[in-house]
Amino acid sequence: MEDLLPLLWSPIEPLIPDFIDMGMDILNPVQCSAAGMDGRHLKAAYGDRIVFWGGGVDIQKTLPRGTPREVRKQVRERLDTFSPGGGFVFAAIHNILAKVPPENIIAMLDTIREFRSLSA
C-alpha cells in the first residue's frame, strides 16, 4: 500500500487518456484545486470523451470558508466551464463537511437553479 500512496495524491490528469482507453466514461472526483486539474483544460482536452462528475465547488476552501458571493462565483465559473456540450454532473469535489455555513450551501444551490433556468 505504501507504494500506492504517491499515486493517490498525485495529479491524475496524465492518466485520463488511459482511463478513457480502458473504457471509463465518468471521472469522479474532479478536484480542480489539484495540480494539473484545471477545469478549462480538462473540458477542452477530454470533455468530448468523458463525463466529469464533481468539481462544482471546492469543499476545502470555498464552500466552508468563502462568502456566499465567493461560492456563487466559483459555482457559476465551474458550470460555465463544464456544462457546455453536456458531460457534467454537478457535485461538490467530495462530501460536504460539517460546519459549512448554511448560507454557503444555499448560495451553491441557488446558483445551480439560476443556471438551469437560464439554460432551459
What does this 3D model show about the protein?
- The chain has 6 helices and 3 strands; from the N terminus they run H-H-E-H-E-H-H-E-H.
- It is globular and about 40 Å long.
- It is mostly helical.
- Strand 1 (26-27), helix 3 and strand 2 form a beta-alpha-beta unit.
- The mean pLDDT is 91.
- It has one domain (27-119).
- A 3-stranded parallel β-sheet has the order 1-2-3, with no helix packed on it.
- Helix content is 46%, strand content 6%.
- Helix 5 packs parallel to helix 6 (102-119).
- Overall pLDDT score: 91
Structural class: mainly alpha
If helices are DSSP runs of H or I spanning 4 or more residues, what is the number of helices? Answer: 6
Strand order of the largest sheet: 1-2-3
The total count of strands amounts to 3
Estimate the global geometry from the Cα principal axes.
globular
- Give the biggest sheet: 3 strands, parallel
The percentage helix is 40-55%
Share in β-strands = 5-15%
Distance between the first and last residues' Cα: 47 Å
Taken together, the total number of domains comes to 1
Instruction: Indicate the low-confidence ranges by residue numbers.
Output: none
CA-atom Rg in angstroms = 15 Å
N-to-C SSE series?
Answer: HHEHEHHEH
